[in-house]
Amino acid sequence: MTEKLLPEPFITDDTVVFGLLALSLGFVFYTSSIKTGFFKKFYSIIPAVLMCYLVPSLLASFGIIAEEWHTVDAAGNITAHSSRLYYMASRYLLPAALVLMTLSIDLKAIANLGSKALIMFFTGTVGIIIGGPIAILIVAIFSPETVGGNDFDAIWRGLSTIAGSWIGGSANQAAMLEIFNYNGDEYGKMVLVDIVVANVWMAIILFGAGKTKRIDSWLKADTSAIEKLKIKVTEFTERITRVPTVKDYMIMLGLAFTTVGIAHFFGGKISTLLKENVAAVADKTNFLSFLGSGFFWMVVLATIVGVALSFTKAKNYEGAGASKIGGMFIYILVATIGIKMDLTRAFETPGLIVLGFIWIAIHAGLLILVAKIIRAPFFFLAVGSQANVGGAASAPVVAAEFHPSLTSVGVLLAVFGYVVGTGGALFCAYLMEIASKV
Question: How many CA atoms lie within 13 A of 341 on its CB side?
Fold first, then answer.
């Protein structure tokens, strides 16, 4: 089967695209600071962080920018191209942000948040596991061909890769592709469903983040532990706040990007060492294969360094704006994630997209039900979901939107996602196989 050609966008130079993203972010933050007229009303409905995400996605949807595209030369040769901006933001800026935003971490206060964060995370995992087979059963009622296929073309095999991505991440997704040998020519459709549905869901989560108080009130949530942590961090920040100097900025730059270098260097070494010496890690079908992911170790090491620095005088750089710089990096990451959401591509595989939305709706519904029962704050629902569906790249983004001090909660839960990803996806895949034969 011939791969579908993706159209070339109007702007292909990453330097120009980055300038356009910076302009978009600057426009959003400037207009959101206007306290009168149209923009005041607009941002009372649409949170600024959601616009940081939606503006790039609209640019992608209108063909101005793109994450991936193809060109065809005079001889008919097809060349695939891709933007490197998301790679730059997720590999350079994300670990730097993790360091800067965990400098002032209070581990004891985070521990006092209790068990609800873990309960909501595992609820999200269960939602993905049962959501897949239920979605297949529902779609089979009105479109049986969408969930059909035989042997290596069986749709449930392809959907297993989405389960791996939504419970763990790309390493778990690759493991599912290896285990179930889904037709490689059809795999692109599953990647498309993954990207479209997961990014629309993230947009909904970010929208909800702007309505947290209203949602928490409806959930009758006990937010006291979260508020205590916010107050404690805020009081500490106010106590040490000073006018930052160039020296402060350069030292923070040094701490952040030296850690990025360390995280990449040792992350690569550790992942390579484990793959070469531990058979279970080298085997892509094994649930421990995520330990061979350099990205996983990069996130873990950057977080460990940030936490370690919180026990030193480096903690005081929070007073010079460490978390604010980290937050700026996070918003750039949000903008690059937005490029992935080309909404026009949702019409390429409408049946599978509908299945994906039913699947994520079951995940969301279960989270809401459990949150209502245990009175969990919306923060735990949002981060528990993103730690599953979005992984280490987006869980910290969502957590930071609630408060910079909560970033590490998103990272820690995302690590759990890597751990349970392959096992959970395998169980989900077997349930989907049964559902597809009913």
Answer: 21
Decide: residue 156, CB within 10 A, 0-12 exposed, 13-18 middle, 19+ buried.
buried
pLDDT tens, 28-48? Answer: 999 999 988 898 889 888 878
103 and 76 within one domain? no
Rounded CA separation 402/360 (Å): 22
Q: Cα–Cα distance between 361 and 119 in angstroms, integer?
A: 19
Residue 242, helix vs strand vs coil: coil
For helices 212-219 and 378-389, angle between their N-to-C axes, nearest 10 degrees: 110
Number of domains in the chain: 2
Q: Which residues pair with 82 in a beta bridge?
A: 68
Residue 272 to residue 277: CA distance in whole angstroms? 9
Task: Give the angle subtended at the CA of 155 by the CAs of 385 and 143, to the nearest 5°.
Answer: 95
Alpha carbon distance 240, 141 (integer Å): 61
Record the tokens describing residue 327, joined without a space: 């937050």
332 residue type, one letter: I
Q: Which two tokens stand for residue 271?
A: 């992942």
Per-residue exposure over 263-290, b if at least 16 CB sit within 10 Å of its own CB, e if not = bbeebeebbeebbeeeeebebbebbbbb
Domain end residue (candidates: 87, 105, 137): 87
Residue 316's φ and ψ, nearest 5 degrees, are -70, -15
Structure tokens at 199: 């990014």
pLDDT digits (tens, 9 = 90+) for 370-396: 999 999 999 999 999 988 887 777 788
Q: What angle do CA 141, 146, 148 make, to 5 degrees?
A: 90
- Chain position carrying tokens 């997961």: 198
Q: Are 65 and 11 in contact (CB under 8 A)?
A: yes
Residue type, 429: A
Task: Quick: pLDDT tens for 51-100.
Answer: 888 899 899 989 999 998 999 888 888 998 999 999 999 899 988 988 99
Asked if residue 198 and residue 83 are part of one domain, the reply reads no
For 261-309, the pLDDT digits (tens) are: 999 999 999 999 999 998 888 877 666 777 888 888 888 899 889 889 9
Boundary residue ending a domain (62, 87, 112): 87
Please report whether residue 419 resides in a domain: yes
pTM of the entire predicted model: 0.78
For 78, phi then psi, to 5°, come to: -95, 130
Which residue, among 269, 412, 394, 262, has the nearest Cα to 334 in the 3D structure?
394
- Give residue 54's domain range: 14-87
Instruction: Give dist(CA 415, CA 392) in Å, integer.
Output: 7
